[in-house]
Amino acid sequence: MFTAGEPIDVETELANPRTYEDTILRIFAKRRDRGAGFAEAFGGVSYFSTAAERQTLAKAIAHRVTSGEFQTRPVDLWILETGGKRREAHLADFIDHVVGSALFKLLTHNAQCHGLPGVYSYLAGVTNVGAMQTFADYIRAHRERAGTKGPPLYVLQSDFEKYGDNLPVGPDAALWKILRTVATLGSKNGEISSSTWDLITGLVRPVVREDDGTEFVRLHGVAMGTPLVPLLGNLAVVPMDEAITAIDGIFYARYNDDFIIAHSGLAALHEADARIDSLMGGLGVKRKLSKELRTALSGNGRPSTDDPAYLGRDRVDCLGLTVSHAGTLSLGPHRLSRFVARVARRMDAIGPALFDEPVDERARHLVAATNVMLDVTSPFAVAGLSSILDTTTDRGSLKDLDFRIARKIVQVATRRTGVRGFRQLPPATLYRDMGLVSLVHLRNLR
């Protein structure tokens, strides 16, 4: 275990076989959880065998690294198709993956010691939920100062244009200076050996091998799928993070390429804009202006009278969550819709089995099934239930979910569309007489 706030000597840790033992075990555990624990890791050796013989393997890796014999191997390029999009992915050699994963842990620790102001991505104990909870606290503090009818809070949401694909990694890229600072942070003499630096650079910018055997090295774009990529995303724009957080009283959060800035004064947002624009060129990144959103956040949802770019809204959707003008939190609309759709599909599947039952009996069976779906201790609980109950502080959002679930029960029970079925089965009957579980009640119990 590393001591929080105290940087470690990367070279010393790379010479320690225990560093690789822990990494080998983590890799095996992930493969085992996916049902691939006995799949081949390399050269006919299974992941299970690497875990069983981890001490011997770790000592061999540590010896090769410290002796300077270790040479990174080319990564295989393949195309991943998801959601109609084609993305490049890279598959590293197993040993390279072990060393890269170990370096990710070491360098991330040093990066946190150096400072990652406002960064919430790919860090232990830090999540997108934590970022939005902090933002919600900031909004509530603003409302306490300004009052419920006071001036709006100005919010800027933005991200970078093809961050991973466009990030400069050539010899003169700004990233290398930041990375070297982090790598040497715990060194006793403030230096790092050429062999260790070559190892780091070889894993950050590996030789890429295509299907036909062609090999090349990138000048732009990180090797997605290799262990150090999340670290690079966190480090690449640290100067921007530092410049923005230096503005007095500002809120700033970044999750990889997405970032959000807020302040009660427009001047602070304009200053943040200026600082971002002054740094982008040197860092080699660009803002995606087509997705940029500026909001004057208030209860009345009116746009700013001082800057028309700031449109009026009463909530902000960011990082899969929604934060209201009052500082309450809920899952984003698409995640809530997906949750209700899962519940609805199960009810539609149950409906035909209740065809011959009277309406009241159909409703009772559906309520009983729904209560199982909404029980976090049940193996049949609907996916996403825990996230909703753990995250949501906006009771209005939960009331809406309760209504949509009750409406679906009534639709299936009465075979009527819309809300007409409530005339026959009013909500009070479902909750009071049949015992339908309420998400608001479940949240209040927490």
Structure description:
The protein has 446 residues and is of the alpha+beta class. Helix content is 48%, strand content 14%. It is built from 18 helices and 14 strands. The strands form four sheets. The protein has a five-stranded mixed β-sheet with strand order 8-9-5-10-11, with helices on both faces. The longest helix is centred in the first third of the chain and has 21 residues. The two termini are 32 Å apart.
Task: Offer a few descriptive terms.
five-stranded mixed sheet, 18 helices, four-stranded mixed sheet, 446 residues, 14% strand, alpha+beta
Q: How would a crystallographer describe the biggest sheet?
A: 5 strands, mixed
First-last Cα distance: 32 Å
Regions with pLDDT < 50 over 5+ consecutive residues?
none
- Helicity, in percent? 40-55%
Shape: globular
What's the overall average pLDDT, rounded?
Answer: 94
Strand order of the largest sheet: 8-9-5-10-11
- State Rg: 26 Å
Our count of helices gives 18
Number of strands: 14
Structure class:
alpha+beta
Note the beta-strand portion.
5-15%
